[in-house]
Amino acid sequence: MTDHALPPAQPHPQLDQLIAVLAYLRAPGGCAWDAEQTHESLTQYLVEEAHELIDAIEHGTPDDVLEELGDVLYQVLFHADIAAARGTDGFTIEDVAARSTAKMVGRHPHVFGDVVADTADAVAANWDTWKRQEKPARTSVLDGVPRGLPALQRAQKLLGRADDVGFAPALPPVVVPEDETALGAQLLALVAGARANGMQAERALRSALAELERGIRHAEQNEGSAPEAPDPA
């Protein structure tokens, strides 16, 4: 329940038209390839489209971003249409939107309720509490960290979760550059050195992350679970 009314919904005829086009393509007499797709078969395309969008944001034009956003949106609609065809245990794009609306309202009690959080720092400080209320089944700060993330991105998240439980992994001392350009060059140099010595940097980092996870779980078991770090997903 919310204390403040939700904003009025506006019509989106072009979005409805895209949903109708997708349904038409997957219906009998439409596209055979589209009709045969599953959640599993589309996974690779979802990953590719997400990375193409990131590339457009970082290096492209506004028109590139527009196009890639459409491709990511189409993937969401595609998966929802597949789910809708499952029958009794399926769901529709409306269900997806309703769930997302409920999640965003629940995670913003300072907007839709009476909680006071007037600054971005205040929101971040309360985010873990709001998220725990939404997902009480999660018992570890590691829950919800996707295993499929690239190792470097996963390292960033897991180090944050380690901070949450007061676990400081034993790491060799390094001199950290003052800007991201120099940091990128240093990381690239490490990968180049590893490659020259026949080592796989991604695999090596994943092995180190597995050890970090064990340390975090040990800290949780000995000190109790700590709240999750802010995560918009």
Description:
With 233 residues, the chain is mainly alpha-helical. The chain contains ten helices and no strands. It has helices at 13-26, 32-36, 39-59, 62-84, 93-106, 109-112, 120-134, 151-164, 180-196, 201-223. Helix 1 packs across helix 4, helix 3 (39-59) runs antiparallel to helix 4 (62-84) and helix 8 runs parallel beside helix 10 (201-223). The longest helix is centred in the first third of the chain and has 23 residues, at 62-84. The two termini are 21 Å apart. 9% of the residues are buried.
Task: Compile the SSE list and pairings.
Elements (H helix, E strand, L loop, with lengths): L12 H14 L5 H5 L2 H21 L2 H23 L8 H14 L2 H4 L7 H15 L16 H14 L15 H17 L4 H23 L10
Summarize the entry for a quick read.
By secondary structure, the chain is mostly helical. Helix content is 64%, strand content 0%. Residues 224-230 have low confidence and may be disordered.
Keywords:
64% helix; mainly alpha; 233 residues; 10 helices; single chain; globular
Rg, rounded, reads 22 Å
Averaged pLDDT, please?
Answer: 88
Structural class: mainly alpha
Main sheet properties? none
Terminal Cα span: 21 Å
Which consecutive residue ranges, at least 5 long each, have pLDDT under 50?
224-230
By DSSP, the count of extended strands is 0
